[in-house]
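Record type: ASSEMBLY
Status: queued
Input:
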Amino acid sequence: MKARHISSLLFLLGLGLLLISIFQNLPYSNNLTGIGANINAQAPQQVGTANIVTSVILAYRGLDTLGELLILFTASIAAGMVLAYNPDELTDSVLGKQQQQPAGFILQTAADLLMPFLLITGMYIILHGHITPGGGFQGGAILAAAFFIPLLTLPGKRMDYQLGSLLEALAGISFISIGLIALFWKGQFLAPLGEPGVPGALLSAGSLPLLYLATGIKVGAELANLLARLRDA
Amino acid sequence: MIGPVLLIALPFLGAFLLPLVYQHYLRAAYWAAPMVVITNLIIALALWFGVSMVGPQSLLMGGFAAPLGITYYIDHLALLFIILLLAGSLSLWLGAWHRRLQEEMLTLLLIGSGTGMALSGDLFNIYVFFEIMAVASYGLTASRRHCGQSFAASLRFLIVGALGSSMLLLGIALIYALTGTLNLSHLAVLAPELLHGTTGLAAFAFMLIGLGVKAELFAVNTWVPEVYAHAPIRVIALLGGFVSKLAMLIIVRLLLLLYAGSDAYLILLGFGALGLLTAEFAALHATDLRRILAYSSMGQLGLIAIAFSIPGEAGLIAGVALAAHHAVAKPALFLLIENWGGHWQKLSGAVKVAPLASVIFLIMTLSLIGVPPLPGFWAKLLLFQAGLTAGGIFNWAIVLIVLTTLIETAYWLRINRQLFQSENNQPPVNIPPDRELWPAALLLVLLLLISLNIGTISDELTQMAYHANDTETYIKHTLPMWQTGE
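Status: finished
Output:
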């Protein structure tokens, strides 16, 4: 072991001890401000979501969710830029010819069969995000898998990046547009629009399901594009 | 209040729309991103005058009141840094035609997130925007084509940045565990009772390390020399000139709202002093011109950290003055050395081939050292006054600053002597093309304008510091339940 390794180990040990001593002093149980209890009590009437988490993600802290979407967007642009430098050279030299072969009949058929089911599951999770656990991020990841699994079985095939980028851009634009409509209509950016309705019904919570739909499509398109870029690079 | 929302929404909308515009209207696309920045600059200036007339304003994002929803607070301190960011990125667009789509998108995302971070009054919201800013800057530093060293530097930046982000998140989590809220004004009310203990100060130290990655503070600034040596020059000017100041702004907000009257200022003072000392010695020792600028930038940010750690308005005034001065002087220097990389001794006799660039270099470095009529002198004078008035440990900080100013003088004058030496008749440097000189010349004009109007500007600064230090107004504006006396 070099001196460098030992010093890193000592640093980690020190940091660990520091964190343990800090966490021992934390008051875990007491509810100091009552924010959580407030949200639990108000959310079903104020926002109309049966899933309280959704009310926090899209209504009380909608701007943070827009930020999360943008982090993913930024990361995918940056990764795309770095990976797109020399795709042809890399695929020829690094991957070699053998891995370009199709995956075989069984895997291909299974992947084709999986796709519609994954699409339906993903859309279901996105559209029911305000009444059941789940939502745009989780459903979007499943949508991305639906498009990526068939690609894995056909290594030679190139993904259509244009379509993905278009969907990504449109979903992002619609998320911000819904926020801006709320700004001009109700005076506040990203304020929930429409009636809260009956918590638990599919058509409830006003404009929140629309926001989740935009989130889901955006996450799906972005992840699929990113995975395909990583595969092609 | 539509203005502040548009300030954030427009760059993000622009980033989403840009790929579509590039596909169909290439000619318009080159103008799209600068147009967004110009629009934002106009809105920001309008907001500035609005705040001058009616005072600071607040708005609720999503329409929910403070502890539940996210509040934004618009005052002169935040607007100054936003205007610097917008005007700076606009000046960097000058003379850089035909940039790639991804670079433009990342720049817009950087601008939007920086604006959001400066205005936000919610810790987690600040974290989210800080993260966008961080990811966009990793991407931008890697945007130089076919350059392995630039990739390696950017990877190092990414690793240090990821460590910093997790530290910042840890600090925010500690604060949430201690108080049960993330809203800055709500925290300001609860802080004296709950946050001024050891655990609360530990949370501040964690957040300082996290934000310090971008603010180039000591110990987490190891990425700076590598990145500045290899990344595209305009990206460096943006990061070192403006993004680092935004991170510093968040540190100041935390210090003012959450930790006023506690010992937190000592932590910031320590990090700042160590950063100043190490960076200036490293700059004296460095030979590569880009690295000298990088170390000098780290030193200046250490100086700004020391200024902000002085309690009271005097420290705030000095810090803002130093930050604004550095945001004008350093990007100009970076732009000048775009073609002057390598050992500083290569510059001997550069005045013969590039007189304008040499003169701009001389004036900017003299201002950084703090030579009288230039703005750098007034900023340092403010810092001396503030430090000596505060007394105690700050007397030692002033001694340190005098010492490092001597070092600064040594290495800047050494380079300037090379520039203006006339022995060498065939200087081995490239002449920067005229259009590359535009932004630097513009910044020089700005610097000279500032030195002519130093009286008005110091009045404005005093006003701004008074409002920024006024925690009660902040709480009254953003916490409705406080108004009803609950």
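Annotation: The two ends of chain A are 35 Å apart (CA to CA).
Annotation: Residues 3-232 of chain A form one domain.
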